[in-house]
Structure formats: C-alpha cells, structure tokens
C-alpha cells in the first residue's frame, strides 16, 4: 500500500491511482446525496427543496401575488444553490407542469410548456410563479421545530436539511434521476390510495403485502392513459422495488372509421406519435389508414384522429399494431431507490418505503408537538410572573420607580426568574388596566388545557400514531382526488404484417387457361361469364378472403404464393402470373387454393397418389416457389382441397369409380409423392379429390351433368384407402369437380 510522502518543500505527493480514486468517490457521493436522488422524508432532490424553500421565504404562498420566475431563480442561486440558472429554472418548470407532476408544487402563470413539447416553456424573465396549494403540505411545519437546519454554501444563511412533509410525497409525484453507479425511477401515485395504505399500516403494522397492494393497486400518472401491466407484475415490482410499468393510449371510435386518441402515455408527444404513423403510411405499411389529424385544443388537450379506410377494417388489430410500432404504448422503468433516514441510498419495497416514511412522520409530529409544548410552558412561566405583578402592582411600580436596577430587586422580592422579571419590565402602561388580569387568567386556562393535551399525546406512542393518522386523513380530504390512470387487463401489442392489417373482404380468384389471374370482390362471381383475351378461357375459380394467401400450383407440382390483396381486380383481364413468379421452362399455372394458415390441405395427382400438408408449408418466400408434389410421367396436379379433420376423403376416377375413406389414413408430409389413394386399372386416372364431414351431401360435376350423392350413397362407397371403390354411371366418366351440395 502506497503512503503519502512530504517533500522538502512541504508539498504532499500521492500516486495518481490514489488521488483519482478519492476524487471520484467524493464526486460520486456528492452526486448521489446532493443532486440526483430524492430523500425519503420529503421526496425532493436538493434543488427542488431549495426552490420551494426560497419561494416560501419570498412569501410566494398560494394566496399571494405571482412574481417573476427570474426573481425566484436568482434567490435560489444566490442563497442556496450555486449552480446554473437554466438547470434550476428547468427544475422549477417541471414542478409547475400538471402533465409532468401528479400534484404540481409550483403554480405558474405564462407559457410553461405543453404536452407536445414540455421544453417549449418561455424564459424565466417572462413567466411568473408562486407556490401551489399542495406545497403547504411540504412547508407548513418548517418553522415549528420539526427539521434540522444546516448552513448554506457560504455559511451566511441556514436552510432545512429536509422539509417536514405531511404526506408521503416521495410516492405522490415520483421522480427520476441518474447518479454515479445508480439511478432512481419512482412513478407517481394517487394521494388517497397512498394515505389509505399509511392509515392501514398505522392500524396494523403487520398487515400483509397482499392487503397493502389492494389499497395501492398501481401508479397513477397525471394523464388518463391506461396502465396495462398485469396485476402480478405490479405486485412483484412493489415487492422488490424494481420492475416496469406499461402505459397505453386511451381511444374512442367515432362514426365507425375515426379512431380518436384521447389520452397519451406519460410524457409522450402527440406530434411525435403522428409523425411515427405518417412514416409508416409513407412506407405503405399502413394501407388501412387514410388520414391523420390533430384536433387538440384547450377543451380537448389530446385529440388525435386516425381515419381508417372503411368500417370493415379491424380497429382492434390496427390499434394493437400501432401500440407496438409507435409511442402510443410505452414502458416505464421502476427503481425505488431513495436516500433513507440513515442517509444512505437504497432500493426499497413499497412496504419498506411506507413504513420508513411513517417513522419519519411520527418523529416529525413528535418534534412539532414537543416544540409547541416548550412554547406553551415558556408562555405559562411568563404568565405566572405577570400574574404576580398584577396582584402586587403597586409594589412593582414602586420598585421600578425607586430602584436603579429593578430587575434583581423584583426577582428577590417576588421570587421571580430572570425571564419573568424581564417580561414585567417590558410591560406597557396600557397593559396595566384591570381587564389584563382577566385576560391573563383566561390565557393561562387555555394554555393549561393545551399543555395537558400535548403531554397526553407525547406520553403515548399509540396516541402519537393516532394523531398522525388523523392528520393524514384530514390532508387527504384537502388534497386528494380520484384516480386518473385506469388499471386494465389488455392484450399484448404485436407488430402485424401488412396483410393482417387489411380489411378481410370476400373475393373470388379466377384463373385462366393461359395463367392469367384476377380477384373479383364477393363470392357470387361466375368466372365462366367473364371476358378473356383471344385464345384464352376460363380454367378454375376459388373463393377466399383478401387477407389470405393464394397458393398457385404449376404443371410440375411446384407451389407459388401471393398475398390475396395484391392480386389485380376483375375489372380487367387480370395479369399473367408469369410476371409475378418464375416458372420452369414449359410449365404453366394450373391450380389455385386460398385458406387460413391453420388449415390442412390435401394434395393429389391424377396418378392416384396424395398426402396431407399444412397450409403454411405451401407458402414460399421466393418467386421461384417450392417443390411440393412429385408427379409421375404424364400425371397432372389435381385441384387441392382443405382437409376436414376426422372426416372423409372422396376420390373419383375416370373409370368411373368413387372411393370414400377416412382422412386419418393419409400421411402428413412436407413434400413428395404421397400414398396411393385408390386402386387404378392401367390407362385410368383420378379426376378429382375432395374432403368432407361424414354424412355430407355431395355433387359430382361432369360438364353440364351433375349427379347428387346423399349421405347413404357415400356410406356405400366407404372403404379403406387404396381400394377399387364403387362404380359410377358412365355419364360421370368426364367428371371434373366434386363439391358440397347446396
């Protein structure tokens, strides 16, 4: 260990490591204790405490006239806080902003900033200020012997070490600060709820945490935005003193298409939120939003209007997306790190904070009552002396007239103390009237009663706590208000794809023989009646919804996926799919399906093989698609169909035959040839496959001929997979489609 050395010139020498370590630790302790962290007693940082005390010294009470803020800042800097004026003024502004402090301590007149831009306040030479009514709860007892006084920075004045807060202000307005190696983030709370918790702790010091958390269900910010943090997470935060709180904007829906945001999360700018939404609109990531407006005014401080495309837009999903991608939802860190009564910083639980504050408050009330008792006793002592003087007024006057030094004579003659003798000598002639004796006796009687009451309270810890409880309840009636931030259970916000955010509209996809596609609105479309280019014609049509993915199959068994909303309208001939996807040489698009991502799909080829796969497995991320169905020579891809779980698979062949078997007998594969569906004679092929519920009624379509099969007929064809099946009429040899009968 290195030692300090003194050289011949008397200069102390230290190693750089030793010097820097001491300098850094001194600086760290200064920042922690004298700048960044609040004291548990009054919940204030030193700069806030000095501003409030300086304003009270200037006489800027809630009932007085406003004074220029520059006057206050000048007094604070000159007398108590020798730092930058802009930082001091900013701390003062924060205490005046009703959207920053739950219970503002400064009452400001002029431009003190706005929710959109809290730092847009006017310079201190323009604004005026005074203390708010709530500040009385912090200052009322400061001159009643309740606090310790310390010298100011130059030793010419005294300032209170901590203010005698009548309420647990540390939790009411909260605070945030960054020190060296530690930080604090205390959210604001509702005064009535905190007082209820304090009263419950006084009445039952062993109250359970659960009962305490019922009284303080969560923070209460100065806005009406929703607190969506689960109750269990809030409880855990209060138990450990660390965690996070999530707040979400409140909104209403007007006329079915206008989303009106009425409350933003704590310290969130409405202008910034609108810019975030506008950026997504410019990037075409919000196709359902068509307009943004800021209709905020004095009557409606927050009114942001988000207009959606139509009433079919899912507003709930749209807002969940906006919550996840903008500041309409924000998370706030909680770190209940305060300077405790022992003068040391520590992270405390809610239970510990309230308990320790009550210890502070009980001691403050004890000091106040003792201070008052001492004053009462001193006054009674003087009144005893004055009464003696009035009872012996002639002798007193004679002594004063005859003696050069009447004080010692009075003390000796009437057995008075020096204080009593001095009080007699200070009497004015007008107070020698006969009525003064009556007044003295009345005052004595009143003070005797007050002394008895004070001594009774001070003699009992229980009575002292009861006094604290009564004062808390009385202050809650004066300063308390209703909760502003509702606590609600809400779904987690999540970023959604452009497809998910679109309105879900019914569409019919029509595919032509040459691979042109178009999407017609509605399900009552007949693709055969549409116009086609010369040499082209109708191939297949399917029903779906605009938010679903459409999967196309080519003649080689590859699958290609496109978003349903991106397909061209049916007002024209559509577009060739060859421009959207990359097809193998000689391949053509021949089949299409639309469905939900949770669906199961039956894929089959005309050679009589097939398998089941998930709809998500059909989705490809590239233009070249993905290989799914392996085809034998000259085999074709059959129209895919959604598989009915625990249902039947219906297979129709060109022979013609019909086989029905349970869907559970088919394998689930990602790709391949699959298993044999039906036993086929040489030269025959499978024309169509279908999946339905047991007992369904089906139609078999062969050109213009339609054959209806009831449940009993299907049961006759029910057998095992890969069997021959039941013979069909020859008129169904050209069968092309199986569908549910209407």
Widest sheet, order of strands: 12-13-15-14
SS field, number of helical segments: 20
Mean pLDDT: 91
Task: Evaluate the radius of gyration.
Answer: 43 Å
Beta-strand content: 15-25%
- Give the overall shape: elongated
The CATH topology of the largest domain is Neuraminidase
Number of domains: 4
Structural class by helix and strand composition: alpha+beta
Distance between the termini: 96 Å
| CATH C-level label of the largest domain | Mainly Beta
Main pleated sheet: 4 strands, antiparallel
Query: CATH superfamily of the largest domain, called what?
Result: DNA gyrase/topoisomerase IV, subunit A, C-terminal
What CATH architecture of the largest domain do you see?
A: 6 Propeller
- Write down how many β-strands occur, each being a DSSP E stretch of 2 or more residues: 37
Give the low-pLDDT segments. none
State the share of residues found in helices, binned by percent: 25-40%
Layout of helices and strands:
Blueprint: E1 5-6, E2 12-13, H1 16-36, H2 46-57, E3 67-68, H3 69-80, H4 85-96, E4 106-109, E5 128-131, H5 136-139, E6 149-151, E7 158-160, H6 169-172, E8 175-178, E9 183-186, H7 191-203, H8 209-215, E10 226-227, H9 231-240, E11 242-248, E12 250-254, E13 258-263, H10 270-282, E14 289-294, E15 304-308, H11 315-325, E16 329-335, E17 337-339, E18 345-347, H12 350-391, H13 393-402, H14 406-414, H15 418-425, H16 435-458, H17 461-479, H18 498-501, E19 506-512, E20 516-521, E21 538-545, E22 549-554, E23 558-563, E24 575-576, E25 589-595, E26 600-604, E27 609-614, H19 615-618, E28 626-627, E29 641-642, E30 648-653, E31 657-662, E32 675-676, E33 686-692, E34 698-702, E35 705-709, H20 711-717, E36 726-727, E37 737-740
Antiparallel strand pairs: 1-2, 3-5, 4-5, 6-7, 8-9, 10-11, 11-16, 12-13, 13-15, 14-15, 17-18, 19-20, 19-21, 20-24, 22-23, 22-25, 23-28, 26-27, 26-29, 27-32, 30-31, 30-33, 31-36, 34-35, 34-37
Helix pairs in contact: 2-3, 3-4, 7-17, 12-15, 12-16, 12-17, 13-14, 14-15
């Amino acid at each position: 260990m290195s030692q300090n050395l003194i050289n011949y010139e008397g200069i102390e020498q230290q190693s750089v490591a030793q010097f820097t370590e001491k300098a850094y630790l001194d600086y760290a302790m200064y920042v922690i204790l004298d700048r960044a962290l609040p004291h548990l007693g009054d919940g204030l940082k030193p700069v806030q405490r000095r501003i409030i005390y300086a304003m009270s010294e200037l006489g800027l009470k809630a009932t007085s006239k406003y004074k220029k803020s520059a006057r206050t800042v000048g007094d604070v800097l000159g007398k108590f806080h020798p730092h930058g004026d802009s930082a001091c003024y900013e701390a003062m502004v924060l205490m005046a902003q009703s959207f920053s402090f739950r219970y503002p301590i400064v009452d400001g007149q002029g431009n003190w900033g706005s929710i959109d831009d809290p730092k847009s306040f006017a310079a201190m030479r323009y604004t005026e200020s005074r203390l708010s009514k709530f500040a009385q709860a912090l200052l009322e007892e400061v001159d009643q012997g309740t606090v310790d006084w310390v010298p100011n920075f130059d030793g010419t004045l005294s300032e209170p070490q901590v203010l005698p807060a009548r309420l647990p202000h540390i939790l009411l307005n909260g605070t945030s600060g960054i020190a060296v190696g530690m930080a604090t983030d205390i959210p604001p709370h509702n005064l009535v709820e905190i007082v209820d918790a304090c009263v419950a702790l006084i009445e039952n010091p062993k109250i359970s945490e659960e009962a305490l958390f019922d009284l303080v269900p969560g923070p209460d910010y100065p806005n009406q935005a929703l607190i969506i943090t689960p109750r269990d997470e809030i409880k855990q935060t209060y138990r450990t003193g660390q965690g996070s709180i999530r707040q979400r904007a409140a909104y209403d829906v007007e006329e079915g298409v206008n989303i009106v945001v009425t409350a933003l999360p704590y310290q969130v700018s409405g202008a910034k939120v609108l810019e975030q939404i506008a950026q997504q609109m410019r990037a075409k990531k919000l196709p359902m939003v068509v307009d943004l407006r800021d209709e905020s005014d004095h009557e409606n401080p927050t009114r942001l209007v988000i207009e959606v495309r139509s009433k079919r837009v899912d507003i709930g999903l749209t807002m969940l997306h906006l919550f996840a991608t903008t500041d309409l939802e924000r998370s706030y860190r909680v770190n209940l790190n305060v300077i405790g009564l022992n003068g040391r910083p520590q992270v405390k639980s809610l239970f510990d904070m309230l308990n320790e504050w009550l210890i502070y408050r009980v001691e403050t009330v004890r000091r106040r009552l003792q201070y008052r008792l001492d004053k009462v006793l001193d006054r009674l002592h003087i009144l005893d002396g004055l009464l003696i003087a009035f009872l012996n007024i002639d002798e007193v006057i004679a002594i004063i007239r005859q003696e050069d030094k009447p004080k010692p004579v009075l003390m000796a003659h009437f057995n008075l103390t020096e204080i009593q003798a001095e009080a007699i000598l200070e009497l004015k002639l007008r107070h020698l009237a006969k009525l003064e004796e009556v007044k003295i006796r009345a005052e004595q009687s009143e003070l005797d009663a007050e002394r008895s009451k004070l001594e009774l309270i001070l003699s009992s810890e229980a009575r002292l706590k009861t006094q604290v409880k009564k004062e808390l309840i009385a202050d809650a009636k004066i300063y308390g208000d209703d909760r502003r931030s509702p606590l609600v259970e809400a779904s987690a916000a999540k970023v959604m794809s452009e497809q998910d955010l679109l309105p879900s509209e019914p569409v019919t996809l029509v595919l032509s023989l040459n691979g042109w596609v178009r999407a017609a609105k509605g399900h009552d479309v007949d693709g055969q009646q549409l116009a086609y280019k010369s040499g082209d014609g109708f191939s297949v049509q399917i029903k779906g919804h605009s938010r679903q993915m459409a999967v196309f199959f080519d003649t080689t068994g590859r699958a290609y996926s496109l978003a349903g909303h991106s397909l061209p309208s049916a007002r024209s001939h559509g577009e060739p799919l060859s421009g959207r996807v990359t097809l193998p040489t000689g391949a053509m698009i021949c089949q299409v399906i639309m469905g939900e991502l949770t669906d199961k799909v039956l894929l089959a080829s005309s050679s009589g093989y097939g398998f089941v796969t998930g709809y998500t497995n059909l989705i490809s991320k590239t233009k070249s698609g993905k290989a799914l169905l392996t085809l034998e020579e000259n085999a074709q891809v059959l129209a895919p169909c959604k598989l009915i779980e625990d249902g039947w698979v219906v297979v129709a062949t060109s022979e013609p035959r019909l086989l029905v078997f349970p869907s559970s007998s088919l394998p689930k594969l990602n790709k391949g040839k699959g298993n044999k569906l039906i036993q086929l004679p040489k030269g025959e092929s499978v024309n169509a496959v279908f999946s339905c519920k047991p007992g369904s009624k089906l139609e078999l379509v062969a050109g213009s001929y339609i054959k209806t099969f009831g449940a009993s007929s299907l049961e006759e064809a029910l057998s095992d997979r890969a069997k021959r099946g039941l013979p069909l009429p020859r008129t169904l040899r050209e069968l092309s489609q199986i569908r549910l009968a209407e």
